[in-house]
Amino acid sequence: MPFDTLNLRLQAVAAASFGHCKARYGTAGAKAECEIDKDIGWKPTFHVKSGVKIIAVEVDDNLYPEILKIAAHDIGKSEKPIVVYQACSLEAFMLDKKQTQINKLKKDGFGIITVDDQNNVTIQNVAVPLVQHISEDDLDREIKGLTQKIKVAFRAAHTTYASDAGQGLQLSGQIIEALVIGIAKAMKKKGLAINPNRAVADVIDDIYAETTFAKYRGAGLGGARDFIKEFRNIASHPSGNAKLAALKLKKCKAGFFDATKLAKKLRDIAKKENLSIQFHVV
Amino acid sequence: MGSLREPGRLREIAPEKIRRNPENPRLFFRAEEMDTLLASIKRYGVQVPITVYAEGDHFVLIDGERRWRCATKLNFRSIPALVQTKPSPLDNLLLMFNIHALREQWDYLTIAKKLPVVIDRFEEENGIPPNEIELSEITGLTRGQIRRCRYLLDLPQGYREILENELELPKKAQKLSEDFFIEMERSLKTVYSRLSDSLPPLNAARDALIDKFRDGKIKAVTDFRMLSKIATSIENLDVRESKAAQAIKEILDRHSRSGISEVYAEHFEVRYDERKVRLNVDSIYEYLNWSIEQNELHFGENLIDRLRELRDIIDQLLDD
To answer: What is the mean pLDDT of residues B265-271?
Structure first.
């Protein structure tokens, strides 16, 4: 009997939320109390499949149980795009009055499903695959020190990223492009022979060739050149199977963080060279 | 049937090959305890083997349900297990009782639900039911624990369900505990054995007390001891039966705002305090009288000082 180690109340939560997930994602691949992967040290209460993604749900009225922390660690190393939810009774959810545990779950990328006394299911927080998740806190830490305008642009990119990692990465790439063009325009204003209207890759090459900028050829300019070459490529990677999808998401996440780091470096270059850059994302 | 005293064979068994013991009552696992065990098992593995017996193509748990659940949840490939020969139904049950009485305490309700089965099985094997001493010996429970279980066992089904539902709630949401029901039942037994004719039906009394506890009108489970003292005031304080009954009726009226401690403080507390002093005075008087009669008047300085202080304060009190 599935769920028979749960108490009666949680059995009801499990049955209702499992039913909801099967109705939403289909019954193919829906399994109760089975492993997702032999290398993941967690058997969720149930899991279903949505395309190449796996939606795994832990049913517990103890918000943010230890097993989810363990699961997150293993899933981070896994080659599968796994979305993780905690399902609990609405009563347990409401008991976290200051939302301490609820916020911890959200911050760490977990979704939350509640089931009320009448077995009504509500998705309280929608989740993305854990390998894709970038928390608001992490984002804030990454964009600390950037100008307000660039921060706003990254926040918008992050919002898109949360629902479409590839598209979010594209937007973060456009921020880098805008910064590069801004630097080129400021250099031109200073009388350097740079044409900011060329393709971004060419503009970087031009900046790269400028002798006063030789000292930035390492991480700053070189990094921007590599990133601009790469990010479109990553965003358009195929994700036909779970492994490729997970790989793409991991690359998107790394790419997003690369973009924030590069933005800081490009801002530093502009500062050091006294370039007043106009930032305008197309 | 083999003996459980024989050592089992140690084996590594896949958790999915193991089933819960049908004799094991439904347990109420505390989430906090499970989390701690889970973290420990994740880190150090299962250090103490579980105990199982083989049945057909699978194994049945005798001891170690928490460890088995953690190993299952953590997707362990195998768990160390001592494989015993299949015990007799009574041995199976008693083994679990002894494990849980001595090591991992079951909830009283869990024990209470299984005690009648132990009694029945004992009777089947021995021809007579066990008395309380025998029951204590075979289960490893103290007689006090057995009596506490019996209070829960004697609860009408509806109230047992209320308790079960409470035990399943997250700790923060729990209001009624086993202690609440045990203390309530104990006091109601004292009350109804003396005054049942003038009081509402027992279930109405239970409902009122549960409501008042949930609403905070009864502040602590220990307040029920005061309810018992109101009932026993008839013999202990020579309180009129009608007065004790009136006070208890007020407490058992779900529409009144009176809690136990308020009624007790208003009508009984001073008289109980006086009784306590009177008993102490009697005790001092007896000792001193005996000392005079026996001519044993060699008191220590400290006692003499205290007796003088006592005499002074009594003089002061009586002169006023």
So the answer is: 94
**Do A145 and A23 have their domain in common?**
no
Instruction: Name the 3-class secondary structure at A88.
Output: strand
Confidence of residue A240 (pLDDT cuts 50, 70, 90): confident
* Residue B79: per-residue pLDDT: 97
Cα separation of B288 and B299, whole Å?
A: 10
**DSSP assignment letter at B198:** G
Closest to B170 (Cα-Cα) out of A35, A267, A88: A88
d(CA B188, CA B224): 9
Q: CA nearest A225: which of A239, A242, A213?
A: A213
Crossing angle (nearest 10°) for helices A219-235 and A165-189: 140
List all residues of chain B from 62 to 101 with a beta carbon under 8 Å from chain A.
69, 72-76
Please tell me the distance in Å from B184's CA to the nearest CA on chain A: 26
Q: Which domain holds residue A37?
A: 8-125
Contact A154, A172 (CB under 8 A): yes
Both tokens of A141, joined, read 């830490």
Sheet arrangement for strand B50-55: B9-13, B79-84, B50-55, B58-63, B18-19
Which CATH code for domain B1-87?
A: 3.90.1530.10
Interface of A with B in 186-205 (CB under 8 A): none
Q: 3-state DSSP call for residue B19?
A: strand
Task: Tell me what the mean pLDDT of segment A173-195 comes to.
Answer: 87
How do beta strands A53-59 and A46-50 pair? antiparallel
- On whether both A85 and A146 belong to a single domain, the answer is no
Q: What is the pLDDT at residue A139? A: 94
Both A68 and A113 in a single domain? yes
Does residue A1 lie within any of the structural domains? no
Domain with CATH 3.90.1530.10 in chain B: 1-87
Residue with tokens 């009055």: A97
Order of strands, edge to edge, in the sheet holding A121-125? A31-32, A46-50, A53-59, A82-89, A111-115, A121-125
CA-nearest of A163, A118, A109, A119 to A20 is: A119
B40, B46, B51, B55 alpha-carbon torsion, rounded to 10°: 120
Q: Report yes or no: A240 at the B interface, CB cutoff 8 Å.
A: no
Confidence of residue A282 (pLDDT cuts 50, 70, 90): low
Q: Give the span between the Cα atoms of A117 and B177, in whole angstroms.
A: 22
CB A171 within 8 Å of CB A161:
yes
pLDDT per residue over A196-223, tens digit each? 888 888 888 888 787 777 777 776 777 8
Min CA distance, A69 vs chain B (Å)? 10
